[in-house]
Specification:
Helices cover 48% and strands 15% of the residues. The chain is α/β, with parallel strands linked by helices and 151 residues long. A 6-stranded mixed beta sheet has the order 3-2-1-4-5-6, sandwiched between helices. Helix 1 runs parallel beside helix 5 and helix 3 packs antiparallel against helix 4. The longest helix has 21 residues.
């Protein structure tokens, strides 16, 4: 299994959790972004810098992901693509996307875009808080432990 991180918008605190997990469990983890990234020195951490542009990092992750891999992303269309490829998608707030709920997320995303397009101020997502960080860390640990038992 490989962990892929849609790193352009991934909060630093979530990356830190992933760095520790990769090192502790010796899991290959790759951060993909359109800007240079700093990571701790590790045999298990890698970065890929892609060209700037809409969905360039997402397309790179989708091209490389394999069934069973884990992708960390808040990008719902990327999550839908990842799930269709047999991989897993977890957002930085600790919510897994599933074949059932990703369609709901896509519908809500499209609805909110429509509202914004018509001039309605919808605000953005609330800032990541301690509860979100804990939920992410717990979900990641449960998932990785489940995968370790299967192997």
């Amino acid at each position: 299994m490989h962990i892929w991180v849609d790193a352009d918008a991934c909060p630093a605190v979530i990356k830190e959790i992933l760095f520790r997990a990769a090192q502790r469990l010796r899991l290959p983890t790759t951060l993909v972004a359109n800007k240079p990234l700093r990571t701790p020195s590790s045999d298990y951490l890698r970065t890929i810098q892609v060209a700037r542009g809409v969905d360039v990092a997402d397309d790179e992750i989708a091209r490389r992901v394999e069934p069973g891999d884990l992708v960390i992303t808040a990008d719902i269309p990327l999550a839908a693509d990842i799930i269709a490829r047999g991989a897993h998608a977890l957002n930085p707030r600790g919510d897994f996307y599933t074949p059932d709920n990703v369609r709901e997320h896509l519908s809500m995303r499209d609805f909110m875009e429509e509202l914004r397009g018509s001039g309605v101020q919808t605000g953005g997502p609330k800032p990541l808080d301690q509860t979100d960080r804990k939920r992410f860390a717990d979900q990641l640990d449960r998932f990785l432990n489940r995968c370790a038992r299967v192997e």
